[in-house]
Every structure is written in structure tokens, then in C-alpha cells.
Design a protein that fits this description.
Blueprint: H1 9-26, H2 30-36, H3 41-50, H4 69-79, H5 86-97, H6 100-105, H7 108-120, E1 125-128, E2 144-148, E3 151-162, E4 169-175, E5 185-191, E6 197-202, E7 213-224, E8 228-229, H8 235-271, E9 273-274, E10 277-278, H9 283-311, H10 317-341, H11 352-360, H12 370-380
Parallel strand pairs: 1-4
Antiparallel strand pairs: 2-3, 3-7, 4-5, 5-8, 6-7, 9-10
The protein binds flavin-adenine dinucleotide.
Length: 383
């Protein structure tokens, strides 16, 4: 298999350990968590932290494994074998969305106080950027952090925040100046146990049902000034860099999921007899699946190219944006097509493909919609 060409012994060890964990500690509970609309994140993350899964690339000094981007990719590929999208999303919020900026720009204090326990699975993190009035247009956020002596006073609200009802800390983007331009924003670690923090609503979603999604409210919430990540005024740039880790995680999730969905659908087509023959005999369906397989492999290869670039410390913004655009489009096409091939059974909630269809819909929206990816790609192409 192609992966043998790329992954070293360490990465294969990570892969095997995560696969075993998913089979033992996650998949048997997925239906229950989907039903409840909640994953017991403190319990799950502690188990994952004990096994070293939550800091694969991070420094050993803070409890990480100090492995490379290949090991991280193997980790995410195995998370895609979870029988729903909500659990992998909750986990990658911790590893790829709420912590990278602390690692790259955070002070020693923030690393000791938040990164170390996040890697250990003792604290649950969330990423808080989106607001009721600002999603794709990140610079339109209005949540404001006003400096007052040795702290900031936070006012505003955030919405669609994954892990939001359970998070111990938020990596949060706020305005710190009214001035126009990208230097009016700062990134903070916001502990959720301080006065002024309110989870105003747990949101009801069409998919990713096990993952909790919240609307949050900040009312004169005092944040210690030392919780500023990096430099005041640089938050927008810090967050744009953090987005690259978030968007990257979508790629392995998409191509592994697509391959699994195609495999499972092929099994169904072999068993389902229509007009006296198994459906798999219909060339029109076989060719459709062949096209999906080709596109899935192309996305995998783009991802491995990106990993090579990352290992060489190259800027991967354009390639990740391309990958995210392709991933969102492909998984939506594949899940829609797989559901179609299941006929009425595919429309039943009890069938795996209906969950796959609902969960996958988010991939072209969350973390930067497809159209936003297209804007980045086009701009970077220099036309
Ligand atoms: C389940 C779920 C979990 C999420 N988790 C988090 C989280 O943990 N933290 C967080 O901060 N956010 C989170 N989000 C928010 C997510 O990142 C935003 O929904 C996304 O960025 C889109 O923003 P929006 O919803 O405001 O859509 P809008 O900005 O209102 O855009 C609506 C649509 O317009 C189109 N569009 C946008 N820009 C352009 C353009 N330039 N040209 C053409 N068309 C365009 C796109 O199709 C887009 O889907 C989550 C969302 C969901 C649904």
C-alpha cells in the first residue's frame, strides 16, 4: 500500500496504537454519544493523554511526543475510522485548533498552565473565533478585550463553538482596537471558570451530533493580561497560521472516510439484488465509484505532498486551501452518491450512510467554507 512508502516505524506505531484505542475505547460508545449529543470529553481526553495521543508533535518538555508531521497524519488517518464525524472533530479541536497557537506563540507561562494539561488530557480546549455576525469574514468580529491594568475585560459572544459546553479554556480571538485593518486583533487563552463567562445555549445540529456545539457569552469577564497569546495586535495573523493546522486535519479525515464509505457501499452493492442481479454489476455505478477512488487517491497524494512541504518548513497555505476545497467537495459528492446507491435504506437514520452524509456536510463549511478557500487559492495564484 502507498502508505508504506511514506510512514516510518514511529508513525506506524502511532497508527497501530490509535487504531487499537478507537476500536476499544471509542467505537463501542459512538451510538450512545450520538444519541446523548455529548461525548464525555474529560474522561476520553484523559485516556488519550495517558497514551500520549494529544501532543504527538509537541515538545517532550510539555509532555508531547516530539514526533513529525507524518506521525500526526497517521494519527488523524486513524481518527477517521471512528464511526461518526463528531468524535474526531472534538479530538482535533484539542490537537489542531485550540493548541497550535499556544505552542507557536505562547509564553512559557501559557505552555505550563494550559498546554501541558491539554496534552495530558486534563484540560479540554475549544477554539472561539466565529460570532453571530462574523464567520467567513473573520475580521468582522466584534468581541472586544479592553486592557485595564494587569488584565483585559472581555465583552461579546461566540457561536458554533465545538466542545463549548465542556471546555476548560478557549483559544479566543478578540478585537483589542477599534482601528481598521488586521492589527486590531489579539488571541487569548480564556479560562472558562472565571466570572462573566456564560454558555448561553447548546445548539441542536443536523449532523456531528455527538459533538457539543455552543453559543458563548462574555460579560465584563476579567482575563489576566498574561493570558494574551503572542503579541497584542498580532492575533489575526496568529489565528490565520493556526487555521492551517485546523484545515490540514480535514484532508486525512476526508480521504480515509471517502475510502471507507466507498468500501462499505461496494459491500452493499454486492449483496443487493435488483432486476435479478447484484447492483455491483451495473457499470454506471462501478464507474462512478472508480472516479471517487481516483479523486480520493489524488487527495491523499496532495496531502502527502503537503506533509513533505511541512517537514521542510515551507509555506503550505495555498496547498492546504486547495486540499480543504477538494476535501469538502469530494466527501459531499461521495456521501451523497453512496446514500443514493443505498436507495431507501440510505435515507433511514439507522443506516451508517445517513450519518456519514449528515456529518460530512460540515467539511465544506467549517474552518473556512469552500468559497473562502477558493478566494485564498485565487489570490495566492497572483492573477
Ligand atoms: C458544527 C459546527 C462546528 C463549528 N465549530 C467551530 C468552532 O469550534 N470554533 C469556531 O470559531 N467556529 C466554529 N464553527 C463555525 C464555522 O467555522 C463557520 O460556520 C464557517 O466559517 C462559516 O461561517 P458562517 O457560518 O458565519 O457563514 P457565512 O460567513 O455567513 O457564509 C455563508 C456562506 O456564504 C458563502 N461564502 C462565504 N464567503 C464567501 C465568498 N467570499 N464568496 C462567495 N461565497 C461565500 C459560503 O458558502 C458560506 O458557507 C463551526 C460551525 C459548525 C456548523
Amino acid at each position: 500500500m502507498a502508505k508504506d512508502l511514506y510512514f516510518n516505524k514511529e508513525a506506524v506505531m502511532v497508527r497501530n496504537a490509535v487504531r487499537d484505542f478507537v476500536n476499544r475505547e471509542i467505537n463501542p460508545f459512538v451510538d450512545e454519544w450520538e444519541e446523548k449529543g455529548l461525548i464525555p470529553l474529560h474522561d476520553l481526553f484523559k485516556k488519550m493523554g495517558d497514551l500520549g495521543f494529544l501532543g504527538i508533535r509537541y515538545e517532550a518538555k510539555y509532555g508531547g511526543q516530539e514526533m513529525d508531521f507524518w506521525a500526526e497524519t497517521a494519527f488523524i488517518e486513524e481518527l477517521a475510522a471512528i464511526n461518526c464525524g463528531g468524535v474526531p472533530m472534538a479530538i482535533t479541536v484539542q490537537t489542531n485548533m485550540a493548541t497550535p497557537a499556544i505552542v507557536e506563540f505562547g509564553s512559557e507561562y501559557l505552555k505550563e498552565t494550559y498546554l501541558r494539561p491539554a496534552i495530558a488530557g486534563e484540560l479540554v480546549g475549544a477554539i472561539a473565533v466565529t460570532e453571530p455576525g462574523a464567520g467567513s469574514d473573520v475580521a468582522a468580529i466584534t468581541t472586544f478585550a479592553r486592557r485595564e491594568g494587569d488584565h483585559y475585560v472581555l465583552n461579546g459572544s461566540k457561536t458554533y463553538i465545538t466542545n463549548g459546553t465542556q471546555a476548560d479554556f478557549l483559544t479566543l480571538l478578540a478585537r483589542t482596537s477599534e482601528a481598521k485593518g488586521h492589527h486590531s486583533f489579539s488571541l487569548f487563552v480564556v479560562p472558562t471558570n472565571l466570572p462573566g463567562f456564560v454558555v448561553s445555549k447548546k445548539l441542536d445540529k443536523m449532523g456531528m451530533r455527538s459533538s457539543d456545539t455552543a453559543e458563548l457569552f462574555f460579560d465584563d469577564m476579567k482575563i489576566p493580561a498574561e493570558n494574551l497569546i503572542g503579541t497584542e495586535g498580532q492575533g489575526f495573523i496568529h489565528q490565520m497560521m493556526q487555521f492551517q493546522h485546523e484545515r490540514f486535519a480535514v484532508l486525512p479525515m476526508a480521504y480515509v472516510s471517502c475510502k471507507r464509505f466507498i468500501d462499505r457501499t461496494a459491500d452493499h452493492l454486492k449483496r443487493r439484488v435488483v432486476f435479478g442481479k447484484p447492483l455491483i454489476s451495473k457499470q454506471v455505478l462501478r464507474h462512478r465509484m472508480a472516479e471517487w477512488l481516483a479523486e480520493t487517491e489524488a487527495l491523499r497524494q496532495l496531502t502527502y505532498h503537503i506533509v513533505r512541504m511541512k517537514e521542510n518548513r515551507m509555506d503550505v497555505t495555498q496547498e492546504i486551501s486547495m486540499g480543504k476545497l477538494l476535501a469538502g467537495n469530494l466527501i459531499n459528492k461521495v456521501t451523497d452518491g453512496c446514500l443514493q446507491m443505498h436507495g431507501g435504506m440510505g435515507f433511514m437514520n439507522e443506516t451508517w450512510v445517513s450519518r456519514a452524509y449528515r456529518d460530512s456536510r460540515l467539511l465544506a463549511i467549517g474552518g473556512g467554507a469552500s468559497e473562502v478557500m477558493s478566494e485564498i487559492i485565487f489570490k495566492m495564484a497572483g492573477y
